[in-house]
Amino acid sequence: MLMNIKTLEWSQEAIKFFGFEKVYLPRLVSSSEIYGTLFDGTLKGVPIAGCLGDQQSALVGQKCFEVGEAKSTFGTGCFMLFNTGDKPVESKNGLLTTVAYKFGEVTCYALEGSVAVAGSSINWLRDNMGLIADVTELNELASKVQDTAGVYFVTAFAGLFAPYWRSDARGTICGITHFTKLEHICRATLEAVCYQSRAILEAMNNDSKTPLRTLKVDGGMSNSDLCMQIQADILGIQVDRPQMRETTALGAAIAAGFATGVWKSFDELSNINKDGRVIFESKITQEKRQKMCHGWDQAVKRSFGWANPHTTVATHEELQVI
C-alpha cells in the first residue's frame, strides 16, 4: 500500500497521507537476491535468498514468465494473476494492478482478481448445513448429474470481489424447483467458483487486449477433475493442471535458486514440473456456454442489495466516473 509500484520506491504521498513520516520503513529489495544468512542454529550460514507474495510465488511456480500467461489458485478463495510484462496495466474493469516479481533488473507486473469464496463454500455445505461429509462426497454427488437443472448458487457470503466489488451482495440460490436435488446444489457449488473465475478472466482479457488461451491451475480445489472440467467448459479454453500442485512453494524455491546461482535463465526451468500435466478441454458448445453464463449473470444481479438494502452502493462503473 505504501510502495509506488511504478518507481518501486516508498510513496511519500502515501506515507504523508497515513501519517507515517516518523516510521522507519525497511529497504525495498527484489524478489530474488541474497538478503542475509541465518546466524545461528542448525542452518547457520544458509542464505535467505527469495521473497515473494503468496500468489506471486504461485505465478512463478507455474512458470508464467511470458506476457499473456495466467494462473489461478483454487483454495479457500480463488486468486488469478495475469502476466502483463514489464509495464503496469491500469485496470478499467475492477482488477488490481500489482508487481508480480523482480528478478535482477527486470520487473514484471500482473493483473490480479480474487474470488472471496471458493473451497470455503464446500466447507459451508459440510459444516454449516450438514449436507455432505467431505469433499469426496461432493464430487461424487455433483458427478451424478449432467448439469444443475437451472440452479445457480451465488456464493456471496461476504459480498462479491473482483470484478463485481459488491459488498451488499449475499449468498443466493436461484432456479430451485420441485425436481431440484442435492446433486444439483453440489454441482452448482462447483460451478459458482468457475463462473466467478470467468468474470475475472473476461476483465483481464479486456484490460490486457491479449485473450488468454490456457489457464494454469493449482490449489486444493484443482484436485477435482470434475471442477476443472467444468472450469474448462465455462471458460471455453484449456485448463492446465500440473502433477505437483504446491506451486507456491516451488515459486519460492525458484526465486531462491536464481539468487544462489542454481539457475541463470527461465529457459533452464523448462523441464521442472513438466511431467504428468493434465489438460482439460471444453466439451460443450459455445451456444450452451453462453446460455449457462447468461443464467449466472441473472443470478448475480439477484444477489445484490441484501446487505444494507436502503443504502445505495456505487458499482465499479460508477466509481470510475467519480
Automatic annotation (TrEMBL):
EC id: 2.7.1.30
Keyword terms, alphabetized: ATP-binding, Glycerol metabolism, Kinase, Nucleotide-binding, Transferase
Record domain Carbohydrate kinase FGGY N-terminal: where: 1-61
Name the UniProt record assigns to this protein: glycerol kinase
Database matches in Pfam families: FGGY_C, FGGY_N
A biological process term (GO) from this entry: glycerol-3-phosphate biosynthetic process
Entry GO terms, CC: mitochondrion
Family matches, as InterPro entries: ATPase_NBD (IPR043129), Carb_kinase_FGGY_CS (IPR018483), FGGY_C (IPR018485), FGGY_N (IPR018484)
Family of the protein in this entry: Belongs to the FGGY kinase family.
Pathway(s) the chain acts in: Polyol metabolism; glycerol degradation via glycerol kinase pathway; sn-glycerol 3-phosphate from glycerol: step 1/1
GO molecular function per UniProt: ATP binding; glycerol kinase activity
Protein's UniProt keywords contain Kinase: yes
Limits of the Carbohydrate kinase FGGY C-terminal domain: 71-259
Upper lineage: Eukaryota, Fungi, Fungi incertae sedis, Mucoromycota, Mucoromycotina
Record-linked Gene3D superfamilies: 3.30.420.40
